[in-house]
Amino acid sequence: MANIISDETIDYVGILAKLELSPGEKEEAKKDMGRMLDYVDMLNELDTSGVEPMSHVFPVNNVFRDDVVTNGDDRDNITANAPQKKDGAFMVPKTFV
Amino acid sequence: MDLMSLTAVELGRKIKAKEVTVEEAVLAAFEQIESKESELNCYVTITKEAALSKAKEIQEKIDNGTLNGPLAGVPVAVKDNMCTTGVLTTCSSKILENFVPTFTAEAVLNLEKAGAVILGKTNMDEFAMGSTTETSHYGATKNPWNTKHVPGGSSGGSAAAVAANECSFALGSDTGGSIRQPSSYCGVTGMKPTYGTVSRYGLIAYGSSLDQIGPIAKDVTDCATILEAIASYDPKDSTSIKRDDYDFTSALVDDVKGMRIGIPKDYMIEGLSPEVKEAIMNAAHLLEQKGAVVEEFDLSLVQYAIPAYYVIACAEASSNLARFDGVKYGYRTPEYNELHEMYKRTRSEGFGPEVKRRIMLGSFVLSSGYYDAYYLKALRTKALIKQAFDKAFEKYDVILGPVAPTTAPEIGSSLSDPIKMYLGDIYTISVNLAGLPGISVPGGFDSNGLPIGVQMIGNCFEEKKIIRAAYAFEQSMNAAGKN
C-alpha cells in the first residue's frame, strides 16, 4: 500500500476529529485510512490543471436579508436538550484552571 | 379491502370521498406495523398515540373543507434524520439517543400542512453513512422481500416500510444514493430532486452540498405528488432555490415519443450483474417501443465519482458532526475531568465505527498540507463530472442506467470491506455531485426474487422529464404484468 499512515498522523487526526481511539481502533484506522487514500489517489490520473474547484453546482451568492431581528428569546427551547444546564445556560466542566 | 396496499394517492382519494376515515387508515397502518415490525425493524420510534389524535384533527379539517389535497389523511413515515418537534430524532446514533427536537424540519412541516399523518421515525445507517442500514445503533432493518438480505441504505427503514406496507409512503434523504438505492433493493419508487428543491432546514446534515430530501413511495404518481407537497423555497436554507414551477404531477403522462434517452456505455462495467443489465436493456426496449430514441454514449469519468465523493462527503461530515460534543444536546459521557476529555469521550462513545472512519478521513483531507492534494482535487474532479453531465444533457433528455450493480446483498456481507461497499454507489453518487434529479423505478426481479431498480437521471430542474419517462416505463411494466 502506497499510503502509510504513521502513529503521529493518526494521533494528529484524532486531535482534529476530537476522537479518542483505543490502541486496537488506532491500528484499524491506520489501515482503513491508508487504503482509502490509495483509492482516492486514483484522482491523480486526471489532469485538473486550470479547473476551478467547484464547491457548489449552482452559482450561489451570499443570501442577504434586512438587518432586523426576527427571532425572539428562545432560550428554553435552545437549552431544552442540554445534558447539563444552569441558570438558563449550558453547563460544561471548568475551562480555565 | 387492504388499505395499506393502496398507493398514497389512491388512499387519499378514498379518504376524500369519505369511503375511508383517516382513523381507519392510520389504524390499518399500525396493524401492519404491529404484525411486521418484530421481523423487519423499519422504525426507530413509533408515535401511535400522537398519530391517532392527529387523525381526528385531520378528519375534521377534511370534513369542514379546509384540507382537500391528495395526501390529506394519508399515513407517512419519516427518516430519523429529520427533526420533529416533541418526537425523538436519533439519526440512528447513540449520540442522539435522547434528542427531542424543539422544531420541525421544513419538508416535514410541508407534509403536515398537506394533512399527512406521521406514524413514526424510520431506521437508517448512522448519520446516513452507509449503504445497508446495518450501521444503525438500533439494529439492522431487514429487506421485506427476503429477510436474510439488507434493505439498502441509508434510508433503508423508509424503503422497507413502504415495501412492507408499514406506511403509505415515506420521506428519505439522499447524499450519495440513500433514497434511490434502498428503493431499488426494496422494489419501491424513490426520487432525489434537484439540489435545493426541498429545504434542508431541520435535516441533520451529513454532506451539506450533497444532501437532499425526497419521497419513497409505491409508484411514480405518488412520488410526483409527494414532491409537489414537500418542495418549497425556504429562506431558512441558504441553498434553497426558488423554482419557476412546482407542478410535477403535470408530467404524469404516458408519452415518451421523441424523447432522447442515453445509456452510458461506461456504466456497463465489470461487477454489473447480468440480470441488472438485462433489466436496464428491457427498460430501454420498452421506452423505445413507445417512441423514445435510445442510444448508448460515453459519459466518461464514471469511476472517479466515488473517490471524489468520499473526499467531499467526509470533509463536510467532519465539519458538520463537530457539533456533537456533549454540550448542547444528545449523549454526554458520564466520566470526565476537563472539557477536552469530555468532548473526546462523548464523541468516541457516541459515534459508531463507520461514522468515526468518515470523520477521520474528512479531518485528514481538510488538514493543512493535504487540503490541496485531496479536498481541492476532489472539488476539481467534481467540476469535470458536472461538465460531463452538461455535455450529455445537450444530447439527451434522460440518462438511463442501473441504480446499483447488484440486487440487495445478504446481511453481514458488506461492512467488512468498506471500499467494496463504496463501489456499490457508482451509479448514484455522481448525481449528487452534479446536483441532478434521479429516480429509481422497479424494473423486475432477479432469479432469487429480489427487486431490481432502474435509474433515470435528468438535468438540473428537469424532474418533469424523468417523471414522464419513469411513468411511461411503469405503465409498460404494469401492462406486461412484470411489477
Notes on the protein architecture:
The complex is a heterodimer of chains A (97) and B (483). With 97 residues, chain A is mainly alpha-helical. The mean pLDDT of chain A is 91. In chain A, strands 1-2 form a two-stranded antiparallel sheet. In chain A, a hairpin with a 2-residue loop joins strand 1 (85-86) and strand 2. Chain A is built from three helices and two strands; from the N terminus they run H-H-H-E-E. The two termini of chain A are 45 Å apart. Chain A has helices at residues 7-17, 23-40, 75-78; strands at residues 85-86, 89-90. Chain B is α/β, with parallel strands linked by helices and 483 residues long. Chain B has a single domain (1-483), classed as Amidase signature (AS) domain (Amidase signature (AS) enzymes, Alpha-Beta Complex), CATH 3.90.1300. In chain B, 39% of the residues lie in helices and 13% in strands. Chain B has 15 helices and eleven strands. In chain B, helix 5 packs parallel to helix 6 (180-186), helix 9 crosses helix 11 and helix 9 (305-320) packs across helix 12 (371-395). The longest helix of chain B is centred in the last third of the chain and has 25 residues, at 371-395. The two termini of chain B are 20 Å apart. The model of chain B has no long low-confidence stretch (mean pLDDT 97). The chains are: A mainly alpha (97), B alpha/beta (483). At the A-B interface, helix 1 and helix 2 of A face helix 9, helix 10, helix 11 and helix 12 of B.
Short description:
Chain A has 97 residues and is mainly α. Chain A contains 3 helices and 2 strands, in the order αααββ. Chain B is an alpha/beta fold and 483 residues long.
Overview features:
heterodimer, A: 97 residues, mainly alpha, two-stranded antiparallel ribbon, 3 helices, B: 483 residues, alpha/beta, Amidase signature (AS) enzymes, eleven-stranded mixed sheet, 15 helices, 39% helix
What is the fold's blueprint, element by element?
The complex is a heterodimer of chains A (97) and B (483).
Chain A: H1 7-17, H2 23-40, H3 75-78, E1 85-86, E2 89-90
Antiparallel strand pairs in A: 1-2
Chain B: H1 8-16, H2 22-40, E1 43-46, H3 48-63, E2 75-79, H4 106-113, E3 117-122, H5 156-163, E4 169-174, H6 180-186, E5 189-192, E6 212-217, H7 220-230, E7 260-264, H8 274-289, E8 293-297, H9 305-320, H10 339-350, H11 353-366, H12 371-395, E9 398-402, H13 418-423, H14 429-433, E10 438-445, E11 451-458, H15 463-479
Parallel strand pairs in B: 2-3, 2-4, 7-8, 7-9
Antiparallel strand pairs in B: 1-3, 4-6, 5-6, 5-10, 9-11, 10-11
